[in-house]
């Protein structure tokens, strides 16, 4: 595409290009008061257009000897230092960041730290409650996720949608978060101490005797219903307070430029919160050691941790109030973009129609199923090794700290991995970690006795070794997921055309995310009801995990070849677009006026610029 820059006689590019700069000694008033030359008709521009500016000095520059690209830039006015003529006063900055930006980012960072600090404590505590409770085990988790957590999550989102239509944003925020804070405080000081009085233990025992041990998981939901309610509220804290409230608020008060610069730092801050909260859980879990006999140490620890959760929740509300009252918020356009919405059947049809989207969907579903299969099996062995709630919670505190350190390190290494090895290697690291650690974990569970003499030399039993290997598997798989798998998944959408990108993401969100999360739970429920217990199902779960991870690796390899081809095609199109852009050059003719030149006056490879001819072709850049 050819374009002609018409600047009313102010711009003329001779055949011998020369850089012309303002003399810094000339004042601003003199440049503003310069009389503008008259514009000549056609493509001819007066060569002496620049000469009416007394503030120019000429400095020869040989473009032909410098192998550089030519940049043609026309500005209305420029000061001596290259800044705009009428520049706005600079905003005060701290560490190179506008103070107005820091007034938003710093509170958001503190808010995110408090939310993630609470989430780690709640996540570790919910597992301790439902797994170590009398009459319960890790077998309760698949049933709890499917038949309690999922319906309550759907019900909450329906209620949230209704409230969003009648409440202001600030009122909606407080209406949602305050019940969470009140519940967790009440649980630590009221519900848990009185749980023996309202849990239907006798009814659950009668039903278990009638139905058999294979229904231990479903009946445990009835037996410890208040603990299950805590489990669901802790899960909702992660999905509602983090995803809906915090990120909704952050997107509301930040600009796109601020988000690009500071959102990645929130991810690093989240892992710092993980480390500190893990140490907090460890500290309160070890309080039992300093208490006398007959004292419920777990009740004391629970009160301490729930007190911190309440204080952090109040801090979140205080920060939210301060930002809304003392920080200027950006104005948004009220025009809404139309979002593609796809039903379940439409999403399934779209998934089947595209190989690229099928492979990407396989990655998402495989991760959800495999991590669920491993995690529940590992937690069952964790209870066998640490039956006491305090011991279990203490180990989970160490686990959270180690996960935070590993994820923080992997996030720092992820950029180097992407840069040196590319998308394909990065996408295969997470399933490879799951495969290698999964083989070791299930081998210790199924064939632990032959390894016992060798493990005894290190002070380990097969069970304890399986717990440690399972912990390593969860730590490295989660850190690889946050630092590599999630970025790979989002990068895979980039080279797609806009229609496929939008529809493919909608299809995966509608079908694959729920299928991955609930698929593992449904498989475990089927195995438990078929073989009687989670322990009896372990060999089959190990085989299913192997098949899923190998399928995951095959899909990643297939997607890598398609992703690379699309990227190369995209780069080729960009090169062709750049090659098609032509910039006309205005050169001096014999009459002394500037005219549209078609010669290689600015071609670095075309010899000396002084020998350029006006009768040549336009230059492609």
Question: Overview of this structure, please?
Answer:
The chain is mainly α. Helix content is 68%, strand content 4%. The chain contains 17 helices and seven strands. The protein has helices at residues 28-32, 99-132, 140-166, 169-191, 195-198, 201-211, 216-223, 225-253, 256-285, 297-326, 344-353, 355-385, 389-446, 448-456, 462-491, 498-531, 534-580, and strands at 18-22, 45-46, 56-60, 93-94, 97-98, 585-588, 593-597. The protein is globular. Mean pLDDT is 77; it is low at 1-15, 17-87, 333-339 and 595-621.
Could you write a compact summary of the structure shown?
The chain is mainly α and 621 residues long. 68% of the residues lie in helices and 4% in strands.
The count of DSSP E runs of length 2 or more, i.e. the number of strands, is 7
Whole-number mean pLDDT = 77
* SSE pattern: EHEEEEHHHHHHHHHHHHHHHHEE
The residue fraction in helices comes out at 55-70%
Low-confidence stretches: 1-15, 17-87, 333-339, 595-621
| Net shape | globular
Strands ordered across the widest β-sheet: 2-7-6
User: What's the gyration radius in Å?
Assistant: 33 Å
Number of helical runs?
17
Give the biggest sheet: 3 strands, antiparallel
């Amino acid at each position: 595409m050819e374009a002609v820059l018409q600047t009313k006689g102010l711009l003329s590019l001779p055949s011998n290009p020369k850089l012309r700069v303002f003399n810094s000694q000339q004042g601003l008033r003199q440049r503003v008061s310069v009389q503008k030359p008259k514009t000549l008709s056609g493509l001819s521009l007066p060569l002496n257009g620049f000469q009416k500016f007394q503030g120019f000095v000429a400095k020869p520059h040989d473009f032909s000897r410098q192998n550089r690209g030519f940049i043609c830039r026309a500005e209305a006015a420029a000061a001596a230092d290259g800044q705009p003529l009428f520049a706005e006063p600079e905003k005060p900055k701290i560490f190179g960041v506008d103070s107005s930006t820091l007034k938003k980012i710093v509170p958001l960072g503190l808010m995110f730290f408090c939310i993630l600090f609470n989430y780690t404590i709640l996540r570790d505590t919910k597992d301790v409650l439902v797994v170590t409770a009398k009459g319960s085990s890790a077998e309760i988790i698949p049933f709890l996720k499917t038949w309690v957590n999922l319906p309550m999550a759907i019900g909450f989102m329906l209620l949230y949608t209704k409230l969003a239509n009648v409440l202001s944003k600030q009122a909606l925020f407080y209406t949602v978060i305050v019940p969470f804070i009140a519940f967790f405080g009440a649980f630590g000081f009221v519900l848990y101490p009185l749980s023996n009085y309202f849990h239907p233990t006798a009814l659950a025992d009668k039903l278990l005797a009638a139905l058999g041990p294979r229904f231990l998981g479903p009946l445990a939901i009835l037996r410890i219903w208040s603990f299950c309610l805590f489990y669901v509220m802790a899960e909702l804290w992660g999905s509602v307070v983090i995803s809906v409230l915090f990120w909704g608020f952050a997107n509301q008060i930040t600009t796109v430029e601020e988000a690009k610069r500071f959102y990645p730092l929130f991810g690093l801050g989240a892992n710092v919160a993980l480390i500190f909260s893990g140490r907090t859980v460890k500290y309160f879990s070890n309080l039992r050691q300093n208490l006398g006999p007959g004292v419920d140490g777990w009740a004391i620890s629970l009160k301490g941790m729930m007190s911190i959760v309440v204080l952090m929740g109040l801090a979140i509300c205080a920060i939210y109030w301060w930002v809304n009252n003392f920080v200027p918020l950006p104005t948004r356009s009220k025009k809404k973009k139309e979002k593609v919405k796809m039903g379940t059947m439409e999403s399934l049809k779209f998934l089947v129609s595209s190989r690229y989207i099928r492979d990407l969907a396989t990655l998402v579903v495989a991760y959800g199923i495999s991590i669920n299969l491993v995690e529940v099996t590992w937690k069952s062995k964790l209870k066998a090794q640490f039956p006491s709630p305090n011991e279990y919670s203490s180990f989970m505190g160490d686990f959270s700290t180690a996960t935070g350190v590993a994820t923080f390190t992997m996030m720092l290494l992820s950029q180097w991995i992407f840069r040196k090895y590319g998308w394909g290697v990065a996408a295969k690291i997470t399933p490879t970690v799951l495969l290698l650690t999964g083989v070791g974990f299930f081998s210790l569970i199924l064939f632990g006795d032959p390894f016992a003499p060798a493990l005894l030399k290190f002070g380990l039993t097969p069970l304890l070794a399986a717990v440690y290997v399972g912990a390593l598997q969860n730590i490295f798989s989660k850190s690889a997921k946050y630092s590599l798998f999630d970025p790979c998944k989002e990068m895979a959408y980039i080279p797609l055309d806009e229609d496929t990108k939008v529809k493919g993401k909608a299809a995966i969100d509608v079908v694959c995310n729920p299928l991955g999360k609930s698929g593992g739970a449904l498989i475990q429920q089927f195995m438990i009801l078929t073989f009687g217990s989670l322990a009896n199902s372990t060999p089959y779960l190990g085989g299913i995990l192997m098949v899923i991870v190998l399928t995951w690796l095959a899909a990643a390899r297939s997607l890598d070849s398609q992703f690379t081809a699309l990227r190369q095609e995209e780069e080729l199109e960009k090169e062709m677009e750049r090659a098609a852009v032509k910039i006309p050059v205005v050169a001096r003719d014999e009459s002394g006026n500037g005219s549209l030149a078609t010669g290689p006056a600015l071609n670095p490879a075309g010899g000396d610029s002084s020998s350029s001819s006006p009768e040549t072709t336009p230059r492609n850049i």
